Amino acid sequence: MEKEKALFRVHFSSLSNVVAGLPFFATLFCVAWSVYFNFEESTATHCRVPNYLPSISAAIGGYIPQRNVWRICIALHAFPRFLIAVAYFRFHMRFLVEKWRKLYSTLAGLCTLLHVVENFALVVLTYISSLDDREIHESMFVLFMVTSEVYMLLTCLLYRWGHTIGGRKMTPNEIQSYHYKLGMFVSNFIIFMMAVYMYFRHNWYCESGVYTGFAACEYLVVFTNIAFHYTARLDFHDQYLSLKGESHRTSKTA
Q1: How far is CA 220 from the centre of its chain?
Q2: Distance between terminal CA atoms of the chain?
Q3: Residue 187: which of 222, 147, 230, 236 has the closest Cα?
Q4: Which tens digit of pLDDT belongs to each residue from 134-176?
Q5: Alpha carbon 171 to chain centroid distance?
Q6: Boundaries of each CWH43-like N-terminal domain copy (predicted)?
Q7: Statement: the pTM of the whole predicted model exceeds 0.85
Q8: How far apart are CA 86 and CA 204, in angstroms?
Q9: From CA 3, how far away is CA 6, in angstroms rounded?
């Protein structure tokens, strides 16, 4: 006789708290520690204009213990993120979209792929800093941002499509999740565009304080990205993540 036993079981709400809390804590810690202990080095710019905040790359890549804290937190949160990416594919596919089903399924698969690549790019740019290999670090950052923005957009589209198919009405919990997702995506995109503008303006004109604005926008991009992914707490509020094994028992006959 075979019986499945749960070797590991955790509520998705608890998992979401950990997955969102680790990078949130790491960002705050690295920035605060850099400002307090490595202010001059971490805020230095190529054109020597006044700057009052370190960029995230400066805060996490070149100093100890910031680099170690960041790497540990990202490593710990990465594996659950891959599991959540797969869970979201099944989450989207449980809705019976008859018309345009092939397109819906393709977009759900693409959404999962983008989620996985976003997480992979974050891990790579974490362990290969701009000081180790600037080209790889910058390439992974671009890949992270592109996949992140497209993933958030597709998730919002799929969420509304699946949850309103055939005249279905969204529950209050689903409405809350959708509005949070949409709000975080729009905020993230606008702030990212502001960051890009300030980055190039700083490099073109070397104005005082512009790089500080860029760094502040970077922090907000990270926090809105974390907040977007944290909506998994709402989507899987009644779910558990389980690791199951099989126990085998052989019955003896006389």
Answers
A1: 13
A2: 17
A3: 222
A4: 899 999 999 999 999 999 999 999 999 999 988 889 999 999 9
A5: 25
A6: 12-238
A7: yes
A8: 43
A9: 10
